Amino acid sequence: MNQRNLPTICLFILTGIVLCVALQQGKTIFAPVLSALLLGVILTPLSDFWDRLRFPPALSAALSVLLALLIILTLLLLLEPYVTDVINRAPLIWEELRSTVEELRRTLRGVEKIAEDVAAAIETDAGAGGSADGDAVALPSITEALFFAPQFAAQCLIFAGTLYFFLMVKNDLYAWVSAASFKLGEGDLRMAGQQVSRYVLTISAINLGLGVIVMIVMELLGMPSPVLWGLLAFALNFLLYLGPMAMISMLTVTGIVVFDGPTSFMPALIYFVLNATEAQFVTPMMVGRSLSVNPLTVFLSLVFWMWLWGPIGGIIAIPLLIWCITILKCLPSAPLAEEQAEASQA
């Protein structure tokens, strides 16, 4: 290694560490800001549609923000009754799990100590989550709700404000970056935004189809709340690798509670087959090679951003990765074009 490059490498590593610490400590601000910027990039086709209609920038940005918030609110409203139903059934679920663990403890004599620990842990959680009169799990107190409400409201305000102003000045911002950079043009930024938008819209359509199929299958199997399972399949499939694993775990637990014998594992097995088919055949065919990303890079990106910001980081990890890869592909294009032009003139 060249000793002249050693200080540069050390400075680069220290800068990365400081940046990671800053992002993690300031996630209450940086997470909604970066999420809003990525959503603004995803909404590029919608912004271009308003521009073609010659809407004023302020009006087009307001319409885009309202539409995005309406979609998010609709998803929350669809999920709310099913989540409430699951919370109300929590004591019954814990009781079924306790009975299952008791049966396993009697069957697996060789691991009796482990089964006793698991049963004790479940009984403890059941006692903390429900009371003798069948109450649901304990909800946050009024004091806790009032403590977290302003912080959540502030993050929503930061998200909506950043999204609105980014959409309003997006064209000017692209022009400013293009003028300030010799290697990155306005067309490159727009192409990166279009790539991210295309990826997210395609994946959303695929996940919607998967969610509908999962809902129908769960209804045929007799699983409770099939609509909830369809919505979970749709939402969790955005978290590559980790989302399907969580879905399989939940289906396994619920199958053990609802069914008896080998049928208990049928919901998880069918979902695994559907998800594998989607991941191996449907997504590669519809996404195409232009948006394909190395699986190792995807996994490391998911791990990094979920370590930083939790579920929000997992949602933004892949769109941000695609945007960065597209930008990096555009960076060498300008110098290479100049070299080719000089060579042709010579």
UniProtKB/TrEMBL annotation:
Domain of life: Bacteria
UniProt cross-references to InterPro entries, sorted A to Z: AI-2E-like
GO BP term (any one): transmembrane transport
Topology versus the membrane: Multi-pass membrane protein
Keyword Transmembrane: yes
Record localization: Membrane
Membrane-spanning intervals of the chain: 6-22, 29-46, 58-79, 199-218, 238-259, 268-287, 307-328
Pfam families the UniProt entry points to: AI-2E_transport (PF01594)
Main subcellular location of this protein, as a coarse class: membrane
Keyword rRNA processing found: no
Keywords: Membrane, Transmembrane, Transmembrane helix
Listed GO CC annotations: membrane
Stated family: Belongs to the autoinducer-2 exporter (AI-2E) (TC 2.A.86) family.
Protein name (Swiss-Prot/TrEMBL): AI-2E family transporter
Taxonomic lineage of the native organism: Bacteria, Pseudomonadati, Pseudomonadota, Alphaproteobacteria, Rhodobacterales
